[in-house]
Amino acid sequence: MKTTGGTDAQKRRAATAAVEAVEDGMVVGLGTGSTTAFAIRAIGDLVADGLDVRGVPTSFAARELARECGIPLADLDEVDAIDLAIDGADQVATTDGALVKGGGAAHAREKVVDAFADRFLVVADPSKTAETLSHPVPVEVLPSARSTVAAAVSALGGDPTLRRAEKKDGPVVTDNGNLVLDCEFGTIDDPDALATSLSRTPGTVEHGLFVGLAETVYVGTDDGVDVIEP
Ligand SMILES: O=C[C@H](O)[C@H](O)[C@H](O)COP(=O)(O)O
């Protein structure tokens, strides 16, 4: 799992605050990453105490952790609704709650689950917040479309880099069998417009801009939790 700038205590505080919204009988979207992992463990503790919930994992890693924690699981196509999704972010715009996600290459499934949920709660630490997004945007692409999508990203003013695996020669391959281009756009003044342009590019499976989706962002700090309600 990738490492981030925040401390475990900050991440745990954010996760604990978000998990307070989980109620008996809910279907809960389980995000991916080191911050959401604290939420998954906390939900596992509640399940051990008798809470009746079902989790819909957003990745292989989330599924594996949720299983270890004893959370009953369902696939997305087995549920009629998701009451609540809890997920992390690589960057959060404090002004409007727009996010960059996909540092763990899980953003395609995350976006489906987070967007489908009635409520989408984000958990983060202070190293993730910014007034304006500027984090490179991960774009999951069909392997055969790597160069055509890269050319389209360049035409949009971006600088795409194929994400390389750390303990394997060659690229990162997503849970869906695709590749990831990390696309540097500098400061993203209009995330909605960029999101639309990326979504329109043939060969793009999903990009990591989550615009207008987050209901509440919990930012764990050294002594509490800052709540952003965009
Ligand atoms: O693909 C991964 C996800 O979008 C994560 O939620 C995101 O990268 C944040 O992860 P972390 O909490 O480990 O910083």
What does this structure look like?
By secondary structure, the protein is of the alpha/beta class. It has 2 domains: 8-126 and 211-228, Rossmann fold (3-Layer(aba) Sandwich), CATH 3.40.50; 137-207, Alpha-Beta Plaits. The chain has 6 helices and 14 strands. It has helices at 8-19, 34-48, 60-68, 107-116, 146-155, 191-200; strands spanning 27-30, 54-57, 84-87, 91-93, 99-100, 119-124, 129-130, 137-141, 159-162, 179-184, 204-207, 209-210, 216-220, 225-228. A 6-stranded mixed β-sheet has the order 2-1-3-6-13-14, with helices on both faces. Strands 7-4-5-12 form a 4-stranded mixed β-sheet, covered by helices on one side. Strand 13 and strand 14 (225-228) form a beta hairpin. Helix 1 crosses helix 2 (34-48). The two termini are 29 Å apart. The structure holds ribose-5-phosphate (R5P). Residues 2, 4, 31-36, 87-90, 101-107, 110 line the site of ribose-5-phosphate. Substrate binds at residues 32-35, 87-90, 101-104, 128.
Short description, anyone?
Catalyzes the reversible conversion of ribose-5-phosphate to ribulose 5-phosphate. The protein has six helices and 14 strands.
Overview features:
Alpha-Beta Plaits, 29% helix, isomerase, alpha/beta, 6 helices, 230 residues, 6-stranded mixed sheet, binds ribose-5-phosphate, Ribose5P_isomerase_type_A, Ribose5P_isomerase_typA_subgr, 2 domains, globular, 4-stranded mixed sheet, Rossmann fold, NagB/RpiA_transferase-like, 24% strand, Ribose-5-phosphate isomerase A
